[in-house]
């Protein structure tokens, strides 16, 4: 059965980084979602021209009929510049979802959770971490997050807060281009050696891994995780490359 388009109302906008914003949407017919799913957005111009893009859901599945999307501005894109530069609270556009059943995490899972993200690939993984915190899941979790600079870290303050809850979550970050004074994290792109250090003792053989980010990062991480002992069938990936935005 095809998902129906419905009218989404923007009820909140939050700046995450200089190039990333989060949008809280109210969808009256929203059926609920699972952590890791996405939605389609469709914009229609006055002349009838339509542009459609898919965006991961950032919010935990407990807030229906409201969902949050986090969108990076793609300079030459069609949809993301409009969202960033034009859309204000109260605006409406079409949406449909939730979509996807493979890249999802359920809080009753007992396996150690391994999350690896590059850039805006953190978005669906953040839905998982928020869901984990909301329901009080106690399976150990590790997030390895790669960003270009400190100003590019999405959800930085919230990740810091989640890591200090004492509920078994460990957050490890690497900055690949520029690091602030006193930076104690990694200073390079994710590689197998970094994965080995971060995952040492994290229950690799029984872990459930989710990897999201640019295609080159996803390929390196997926191959590295399998090489370190994570069963291939327990490594789920979602990747993105150059697109219209």
Brief account:
The chain has 245 residues and is an alpha/beta fold. Helices cover 20% and strands 33% of the residues.
Average pLDDT across residues? 91
Most strands sheet = 6 strands, antiparallel
Q: Supply the helix-strand structural class.
A: alpha/beta
Total domains: 2
Instruction: Determine Rg (CA atoms, Å).
Output: 18 Å
CATH topology of the largest domain: Rossmann fold
What is the number of helices?
5
The helix content is 10-25%
**Silhouette:** globular
The H-and-E topology, N to C, reads as: EEEEEHEEHEHEHEHE
CATH H-level superfamily title of the largest domain: Nucleotide-binding domain of ferredoxin-NADP reductase (FNR) module
β-strand percent reads 25-35%
Which CATH class of the largest domain is shown?
Answer: Alpha Beta
Distance between the termini: 27 Å
